[in-house]
Amino acid sequence: MKWQSGLFVALRFLIGWHFLYEGISKLVHPEWSSVAFLAESQGIFTGIAHWITSNQNVLHVVDALNTWGLTAIGLGLILGLFTRGAAIAGTILLVLYYLFLPPFIGMETAAPQEGNYLIVNKNLIEAVMLLLIAVSPAAWNYGLDVLLKTKKK
Amino acid sequence: MSTIPGRRKVLKAMAGVPVLGLLGWEALRGIKYDARHDVREEIIQELGLDDLLASVRKVSNIPGDLIRIGIVGFGIRGTQLSRALGFMEKSKFEKELAEQKASGEESLKSQIKQGNLNVAVTGICDVYDLRAETGIATARHDIFTGGDVAKKHPVKRYGKYHDMLADPTIDAVIVSAPDHHHAQMSMDAVKAGKHVYCEKAPVHREDEIQPLYEAVKNSGMVYQLGHQIPQNAVFQQAKEIINRGLLGNISQVETTSNRNTPTGAWIRHLDNSGEPKPGDENSIDWKQWLGKAPEVPFSTRRYYSWARYFDYDTGIFGQLFSHEFDAVNQLLNLGIPELVSATGGQYYYTDFGDIPDVLHTSFEYKDKGTTLTYSANLTSARARPRIIYGKDASMTIGGSLSMTPDGSSEKYKDLIKNGLVDPSKPMIEILEGSELTEAVDAVSGASTSYYASRGLTTTSINGKVWDVTHLHLKEWLDCIRHGGVPSANIDMAIQEAMVIAMADISYREQCRTSWDPEKRMIIRV
Fold first, then answer.
1. Which domain, by its residues, includes B331?
2. Whether the Cβ atoms of residue B333 and residue B326 lie closer than 8 Å to each other
3. Closest chain A residue to the Cα of B26, Cα to Cα
4. Which of B205, B229, B253 finishes a domain?
5. B31, B67, B418, B467: which has the fewest Cβ within 10 Å?
6. Is residue B377 part of a domain?
7. pLDDT per residue over B95-147, tens digit each?
8. Do the beta carbons of residue B240 and residue B52 sit within 8 Å?
9. What residues of A are in the B interface, CB distance below 8 Å?
């Protein structure tokens, strides 16, 4: 059981790292915009994606929400602060990425990809892993939440 | 129970801190590494392009007196030009605004924000009643103030354009009638003391070139030809790159037009349900429409699809190549070639007018050591980029610009050797559109290459999106108010007219044409 808990926490750190660095790299490159990703959108969210890209103000809000969302979720997961909330928010974000550009048959994209995917891609796997973290108390150990729980008592 | 957590618990709670510390440390190392290895900065420094944005013309905001404009010919282009000036039919404007509001599109809103040019369209002249009425309704509603400015200035319809030219309340004229009227109307307008914005092409026939030139030069009026491409910020930066010799010796320029619809081939006499479009001899002044063209009975095909007939147009050369030539001539100052050769044929849309579907032309500039080639296809929309080939680098220029070093370049030998640039990838990309527009992007990887390039309809200057046709009209109006020479001025127009005439004669008479600069005339070879 100890091993199990340790691996859950390690998984939380790894995913947190991934999120936080995605956020940081967007912060240090202020010219970054989601426009290229959204322009490639296919499937049910294409309409929304095009609405976002055609509207500068909306695009700025989406870019800012994404950057700070990634950063906050990453911090939450690594520090173990509001772990469950961070994990659920991360799941939602990943499912959104997945749906904006789903690897379904016939949905080719010009965006560069480093692998080959059919229905399942890394976004989907990471989303499910975050959901697992959200429902597994073993993953909530080793984090600031431990202190919050103490205070509540 | 104590509320102070135990030491063990605190340690447990802080487990993430070292992870965070490690990430922070590594991220900082990464940022420092990137700063030292900023390929983009390095290439820009190396090429001396850090001041490239300064080459983009600023959009002026100098107020001036009201200019009263008359429009001759209110067809498709007349409607587009009115819109670029800020005039739209009220019902059309409101409908489109509501549609865009629902879909979240902002093109009309951003157009309103472009600002009032302080003009009024006070005269409309069209041979067709329906179009003249549309023109009047358009002129009565300006989109900047919700129609208030237009209301103050009554719009008059003129049956003949000469009457419009004789009216002292008209300051300037837009000529957007079919091509066979362009030269005569422009000449008559400048002689009547009106400034002229003429749609391309400037003339229809060779013998109109010299009279047009002399008429405009002697008049002192501002003449602008309708080529909006040079207003694009990307083109102004391309010109700067070329002027600094970064492409090396330029040996060839390749231009193309690619379309694959009947409308694109100017077959426009039928409506969406396949019925002939409205208009007959009672509602269209056919004699005036024909002008100096050979007398033929009224024909809906000829009236709507005039660009397919050599009686009224030079076809692909006047309609499409004119834009290509102007774009290239603005960049390279090529001028008039020594030798032109054109071949092609009408192989698909047979029995409809005279123009070819496929056309290939080469223009030899012996004194400059450069060949301009133009290839057009009206039955395939496969896009071919506009490419400038230099000894050291080639440039693809459309809505975006990319410059790729040549593998055998002497100039970039060292940069290629030390891996800073790669002959298989662009070394400079200037992308048109949204956030990236004004960024000069030197690219070392393929990451940005999938951004779709945009068309030539809008450009971004100082973070604001502009309709290039609006900018082109604005340049004309600025020159009228404050003096100066517009970019598509009479000298550029005459070069273009001559080049088109040489190509047109070469195709129609199946000969090569050369240019005698002393006698200023075209010679059949």
1. 231-268+305-464+488-524
2. no
3. A21
4. B229
5. B418
6. yes
7. 999 998 887 777 788 788 887 899 999 999 999 999 999 999 999 999 887 77
8. yes
9. 9, 13, 16-17, 20-21, 24-25, 28, 31, 33, 35-36, 39-40, 51, 53-56, 58-59, 75, 78-80, 110-112, 141-147, 150-151, 153
